[in-house]
Give the backbone structure.
Amino acid sequence: MTKKSLASQADVHKLYEASVQNPTEAVAFINRMYRRRNGHAPRLFMEDFCGTATLSCSWVRAHPENHAWGVDIDRPTLDWCRAHNLPALGDQADRLHLICEDVTRVREPSVDVRGAFNFSYFIFKSRPQLRAYFETVCRSLRPGGLFLCDLFGGHAAMQTTIEERKVAASRHADGSRVPAFTYQWEHAHFNVINHDITCHIHFAFRDGSRISKAFTYNWRLWTLPELRELLIEAGFDETGVYIHGWTPEGESDDTYRLRTRYENEDGWLAYIAGWKRRD
């Protein structure tokens, strides 16, 4: 009998969660930002383009009064979450609500924080589309509410390139083992005229097998000034940019600070905050 390859046995959603997301740190970062601004912790969170809703799961785990709403238009992915992530929450799963809908149509319930991570909002390629989404988000926030999204940039962002990172073996929330693998992030195409960018995620395993184009994204690569301008146009009172620093070895220190100036590098990651007026 031919032995099955590691790639053939792997679950791409579990590989994605293991390599792309760090929900515990994200929840802590959101809490710090909101508490500094409003003097108390946020309790109601909406995760747009939530996929398997890993961040929403971490949100409800973080405090017994926390509630989360995960919004995604892809029902099979939400069903995967129900099968693999919700059972691990136990009774806490009652505080996680999954909504299969276009994020531009979801304005309720009113929440303290709404987020769009992993560059998911790049799917909106025109200013009117993105502004309309930001307007929907702003209306859904409570006074003093926070919208947070992320962005990548730098010299290499506009070039064809492949970045690799080894990911150690781990256990998924459902108890299954996730083998060690190599995560590959590819910029396959970039159009300087309109900033259309095509990116792929590949997974490679120690037995030589691989999953090519496990995920493919056709996006517009937005810039920080564009996003800040659109947030203000959409009704947000104030915006801020948080970017990491660097270690002496030239690696990200994974500590995101509010910045007003930042020298360009080959690659960087940023969070953009939009604050709704408190009164």
Q: What stands out?
A: DSSP finds seven helices and 14 strands in the chain.
